[in-house]
Design brief:
By secondary structure, this protein is of the alpha+beta class. The chain is built from 3 helices and 17 strands. The longest helix has 37 residues. The termini are far apart. Pfam families: Spond_N, TSP1_spondin. InterPro entries: Spondin/Thrombospondin_T1, Spondin_N, Spondin_N_sf, TSP1_rpt, TSP1_rpt_sf, TSP1_spondin_dom. One of its GO terms (molecular function) is metal ion binding. It is found in: Secreted, Extracellular space, Extracellular matrix.
Amino acid sequence: MSPGLTRVLLRPTQLPAKAGALPLPVLQRKYLGMENLMFVYCSSKIIWTLLVTILGYASSLPVRDDSICTAEELAKYSIIFTGKWSQTAFPKQYPLYRPPAQWSSMLGVTHSSDYSMWKKNEYASNGVRDFAEKGEAWVLMKEIEEAGEKIQSVHGIFSAPAISSGTGQTSTELEVRSRHPLVSFVVRIVPSPDWFVGIDSLNLCEGDHWMEEVSVDLFPYDAGTDSGFTFSSPNFATIPQDTVTEITCSSPSHPANSFYYPKLKILPPIAQVTMVKLKKNQLGLPIPHLNQPAKSNEILDTISETPLDCEVSQWSSWGLCRGPCRKPGTKIRTRFVLLHPANNGTPCPNLDEETGCEPDNCV
């Protein structure tokens, strides 16, 4: 031992004599009490952290009614798509040729709330972009299949044939289950830059039963991937990509827009979809529960008439002053029709205007 150092031997039952010192058993009891408090505190902290995590995860999940669907396991529906895109209802720039107004095939899916085909005010997927711009379904079908494989959120895919005109009908059948009661689909507007109609996550389950029939009016949407204003606009990619937005009579607010009707409060429906629950007859064959429209491609419903005002160009420059020398002459300016009126819209004004002048360069 080094010089100047003194070894102090401690008895196991006491501490060195020091002001405020306590016997070891008392300290041991205090230490054990503090240890218990620390254990309770740490346990409470862990439980609270787990609770916050669970609640945060739950709050991030989609809130849909399909979680409480207690209807019978399986239901089948007939889905009927009716195009109402007529020249009477939508006279502005109505496509008559190359190509004429028409609808693409329908592509849809039955699913749970864990999947979304498209959603207003959110970005369209690559599959929805390809379908809305070109009518190509391959990428979108791959996206649907991958969602079904990963999280079992998709029950089935359905499709219906295209319609070769702006007005007409197409139909198919779909199947929903209590775990997959939502229906989504898209139909492309042809021709158009990236416009479509569709339904996002329509729930066919009402608590303990399936809806017997539901009809929904459809309005045009812009996929946010092409910046064209008119039905026949050339391809012009939107960079950066925009979100899916509804096209209205005043938005986009540009006179060149094919759906721009500033005198209207709301556009008439451009299409309608009806889903009817199927029942089995005595022979076991499914039949529509309610009467269906006639088996033709014609629309039996009345078509609204949208007034279309005449649109004319700006005035041209004044022409040369014509007339005899040293006498009053006249000059003319002209304009031309950009859009002819329809359905009792405002008629076109005069296309030429004349005013007096004094001839120049007289000899």
